[in-house]
Amino acid sequence: MHTTISPFTLTHWRERTKGERTQWGWQGTSPEFGDIRVVHPAGPYVRERIVAQVSGGLIPTASFEARGLHTEGMTRPSLNRAVLRLGDAHVRMSRNRWGLTHRGRSLHMTCLGDAYRLTALDRGSYTLSRAADAEDPGVVITVRQSGWGRNKRVSVRAEGRVLHADIALAALFCGVDRSVLTRRGAVRAGFARVFDLWAESQY
Fold first, then answer.
1. Which of 39, 87, 101, 136 has a Cα at 20 to 30 A from 16?
2. Segment 181-193, tens digit of pLDDT
């Protein structure tokens, strides 16, 4: 069902349980969809695997999982070697690693016949758009991060009528490392990978 929503805010949280890994995330309440909670890394914990997950309220549970040696030491999954699931559905993903603009580097997704595009606005903000079809004009959800430390928060605002899946995907990417969606972020990520490989070679 398509719904017009009010803007809402998610605040940053951090939690450490004795003997467990530290978890981070975002949480808040949408007047239309209820409580929403994003967590990363989500358990159960497995070597060379890291997961971000969103759940709660009326939205379907969604997860973004990255696997490989590059995940060791990460607190959020990156877009490399990743699998995205929305409820029981697998979401197909693709992107142009050589795109020159933010739009050209967008992450494209297809799920249950709907086409989505995730585009960076800057280092902390992005849009998630669902393409129009014969029955619906589509939607654009803008997620903007602001603040520092304990005061970090993200605002979520939609232009158009949303589906439950739209909100789940838009919130989930708060817990994903999206740096490669910008050219500058991709360069930083590349240098970081080279440094990590060099460090590992010293042991």
1. 87
2. 997 755 555 444 4
Entry pTM: 0.88
Say which residue the tokens 């995940």 belong to: 71
DSSP structural state of residue 69? G
Residue 129 clears pLDDT 80, i.e. is over it: yes
Let me know: does 45 contact 59? Beta carbons within 8 Å.
no
Residue type, 200: E
Q: In Å, what is the CA distance from 47 to each residue of 51, 68, 98, 128, 162?
A: 11, 9, 30, 30, 36
Task: Report how far residue 51's alpha carbon sits from residue 65's, in angstroms, rounded to the nearest whole number.
Answer: 4
Q: Which amino acid is at 83?
A: V
- Average pLDDT on 41-50 reads 88
What percent of the chain is modeled with pLDDT above 70?
Answer: 90
Q: What is the DSSP string of 153-182?
A: EEEEEEESPBPHHHHHHHHHGGGSB-GGGS
